[in-house]
Amino acid sequence: HPLLGDAKYGGPCAAAGAPVPRQMLHSWRLAFSHPVSGVPLELEAPLPPDMKGLLERLRQEPGPSGR
Predict the structure, then answer these.
(1) Is 50 helix (H, G, I), strand (E, B) or coil?
(2) Of 43, 56, 60, 64, which sits most exposed with the smallest number of CB within 10 A?
(3) Are 32 and 41 in contact (CB under 8 A)?
(4) Using CA atoms, how far apart are residues 45 and 6, in angstroms rounded to an integer?
(5) From CA 50, how far away is CA 26, in angstroms rounded?
(6) Residues linked to residue 31 through DSSP beta bridges, in sequence order
(7) How far apart are CA 20 and CA 48, in angstroms?
(8) How is residue 65 annotated by DSSP?
(9) CA–CA separation, 34 vs 60, rounded Å?
């Protein structure tokens, strides 16, 4: 499935009436073992501001049922 903003593979490049200038892909949490020490690592990152704003705009749009 193409990602929002993925022009190369056919994802939409606009949403909620605004252009989407980049791929909208984000992992809020990653967990893995360090490749050398083997220590378990868990990293978290909040949504970038542009993604958060787009998500908020999309949530305000009426859905197919006209919500």
Answers:
(1) helix
(2) 64
(3) yes
(4) 22
(5) 12
(6) 42
(7) 13
(8) T
(9) 41
pLDDT at 28: 94
What integer pLDDT is reported at residue 43 of this predicted model? 97
What would the two tokens of residue 20 be? 């989407």
- Which DSSP string corresponds to 1-12? -PPTT-TTTT--
Tokens of 35: 């490749």
pLDDT beyond 70 at 66: no
Closest C-alpha to 58, from 15, 5, 19, 14: 15
What b/e readout covers 25-57, taking b as 16+ CB neighbours within 10 angstroms?
eeeeeeeeeeeeeeeeeeeeeeeeeebeebeee
Q: pTM of whole model > 0.85?
A: no
Tokens 């606009």 belong to 14
